[in-house]
Design goal:
By secondary structure, the chain is α+β, with helices and mostly antiparallel strands. It has helices spanning 26-29, 85-100, 131-144, 150-157, 222-231, 250-254, and strands at residues 11-14, 40-42, 60-62, 76-77, 108-117, 123-127, 166-174, 180-185, 190-199, 203-209, 235-240, 245-248, 256-260, 265-269, 277-281, 285-293, 305-306. The strands form four sheets. It has a seven-stranded antiparallel β-sheet with strand order 4-12-9-16-7-5-6. A five-stranded antiparallel β-sheet has the order 11-10-13-8-17. Strand 14 (265-269) and strand 15 form a beta hairpin. The longest helix has 16 residues, at 85-100. The structure holds 2-oxoglutaric acid (AKG) and fe (ii) ion. Fe (ii) ion binds at residues 183, 185, 258, 305.
Length: 309
């Protein structure tokens, strides 16, 4: 089956014999199939000035098949609900017109707002942000209310301590081939509760445990460490379709890095049959990430991504 919204020539299909790393999908990882080589992905030439992590040369690397269901990382959610397409088109277009069209080389914008009480007691969720990003936040709040645990919903839209807070909206634009290095969003700058929305294209986001049991010195021999490493999986590739909504909280926000590999296409399990995969070409992707600033961190001037260090 073809991936929805892909052009016919954008899609390769196959079975992921020999290469699926997900131990829960043993039925498709057995070596008896006729598939001989795993899929590989073409990578693009780099631009040394880019803010994003890009490959240095054109080459092919083997990839794993990304899943469509959220991986079992505590605090990570990708609800089934998507941003309605009319609204997504509108927000995407506004971002392009206001921040990127006609500005060659600009691929990231940071905006700041604050939750303030409205007349009548209701909160305006991002006073100071452009009006369309405030109303988008309000739409997201209603869209997510029925599909998130109530404490996660409150974390995203009220904040931890129930007092008016400052928040940041960061808008990232990725051409096919561009990505973002593995990082944990700055611990000293942002609080818990991060909301990320994809527009224009899907992409695979990779999650990796910041400190794995296998890497920690447990004092056990190598054999025991290997057994530990198999108990819990430390790396997941998740496909984020366009209009999807990603929530990072708790462990997924603090103890896992997230990254987007810079490549031209992704290998993704099929929607109706996860034992089959398709290669999905990337298009221009825009993401909006809303996050709370920690008290005292609402002074602009430092970069907003860091490695785990
Ligand atoms: O583009 C995305 O979805 C991720 C952006 C991100 O991780 C960041 O800006 O910290
Ligand atoms: Fe991030």
């Amino acid at each position: 089956m073809k991936i929805a919204r892909q052009h016919e020539q954008d899609v390769l299909q196959g079975r992921p014999d020999n290469m699926v790393l997900d131990p829960t999908k043993e039925s498709c990882s057995s070596a008896h199939g006729t598939q001989t080589s795993p899929p590989s992905i073409a990578m693009e030439e780099s631009d040394d000035d880019s803010l994003f992590d890009e490959p240095r040369e054109s080459r092919h690397i083997p990839v794993t098949v990304a899943r469509r269901r959220a991986p079992p990382i505590p605090g990570l959610f990708v609800p089934d609900v998507h941003v309605p397409s009319g609204l997504a088109d509108e927000v995407f277009q506004k971002c392009m017109d206001m921040y990127f069209n006609g500005r060659a080389g600009v691929n990231q914008v940071m905006l700041f707002g604050r939750s303030v009480p409205e007349l009548g007691g209701e909160l305006i969720l991002g006073h100071g942000l452009p009006a369309f990003l405030i109303s988008f936040l309000h739409e997201l709040r209603e869209l997510l209310r029925p599909v998130l645990p109530s404490h996660v919903h409150a974390l995203l839209f009220v904040g931890k301590d129930n007092i008016p807070r400052a928040r940041q909206a960061i808008i990232n634009l990725y051409d096919p081939g561009e990505g973002i290095s593995p990082h944990v969003d700055l611990l000293k700058r942002f609080d818990d509760g991060i909301l990320g929305i994809s527009f224009g294209s899907g992409c695979v986001m990779s999650f990796e445990k910041a400190v794995t049991e296998a890497k920690e010195d447990t004092g056990l021999g190598a054999e025991h460490r290997d057994m530990d490493a198999h108990k819990a999986r430390n790396q997941w590739d998740l496909y984020l379709p366009e209009r999807s909504i990603l929530v990072l909280s708790e462990e997924s926000r603090y103890r896992w890095t997230h990254a987007i590999e810079g490549r031209l296409s992704d290998v993704v399990e099929n929607e109706n049959d996860s034992s089959e995969w398709s290669t999905v070409m990337r298009r221009t992707r825009l993401s909006i990430t809303y996050r709370w600033l920690l008290p005292g961190a609402d002074i602009v001037g430092t970069p907003d991504q860091s490695s785990v260090a």
